[in-house]
Amino acid sequence: MTYAKISTLKIYEQIAEQLKQHILDGGWKSGDKLPSTKELSEQFKVGRSTMREALSALKAMGLIEIRHGEGCFVRAVEPSAIQMPSFDSLLLSKETIFELMEARIALEAANAAIAAVRRTDEDLDAFAALLDVMAERIGDEAFGESSDIEFHHLLAKATHNSIMVRLLDTISSQMEAAIREARRLQLYGHKKMSVRLLEEHQAIFEAVSRRDAAGAEAAVRAHLTHVEQVLRDYLASS
Coil, helix or strand for 190? Predict the structure, then answer.
């Protein structure tokens, strides 16, 4: 008797595979803009959170670039360099999640120090514009989550080191899949917490703006250590 192979891929991974193949087959070319998350969700008949996970997976592979307020765009990459990241162990192991948090703090502390030295006026303009909108939309859970991700992506971009950007994208995408619900409930569901997070982001921005590498690194460590503790407390009790 022969048996058909049973797929262990989650829904978002199956969607990501289909989108990846469409790009590799030339359906979307480098620089093309993908349909909106809403449109893709309707086409695949899934929720937007599932579609965002699929897009995050494509981003982690380096296949697309997600531009805040603009959408998702196809990047120029070699097909052989594209791999689907595995999230199974992260979803099952709290220990692995905590290790990811530790790795992210180390990476982003380095990013902040480098960005403080290399940042341009254009980088500062992007930070300032995002922080203005974040302040205006305090309490908006979905925007709070997406803008937080965008802030840290801007920090990585301000290093002007593409490897730093790719490393952050990979770690962040894995963490997003593993702790999305916990993070949204604990960090963005409370106005007081949202205000504190905004203040922490502003402190990072101010240090980068004045080219204070040590200050920027310290501000990032303080911010992410705070976030880590909130999530640790939640995950430990769940």
Answer: coil
CA-CA distance, 155 to 159, in Å (whole number)?
A: 7
Q: Residue 161: CA atoms inside 13 Å, Cβ hemisphere, count?
A: 17
Q: What kind and span of H or E run contains 86?
A: none
Hey, how many other C-beta atoms are within 10 angstroms of the C-beta on 23? 22
- With a CB cutoff of 8 Å and minimum separation 6, the contacts of 48 are 37, 38, 41
Separation of alpha carbons 66 and 44, rounded Å: 20
Break the chain into its structural domains and give their ranges. Answer: 11-81, 88-237
Superfamily of domain 88-237: GntR ligand-binding domain-like (1.20.120.530)
**Encoded amino acid at 5, one letter:** K
pTM to 2 decimal places: 0.65
Is residue 3 over pLDDT 50?
no
Question: Identity (one letter) of the amino acid at 217?
Answer: E
CATH of 11-81, one of 3.30.70.100, 2.40.50.140, 1.10.10.10, 1.10.10.250: 1.10.10.10
What average pLDDT score do residues 36-53 get?
88
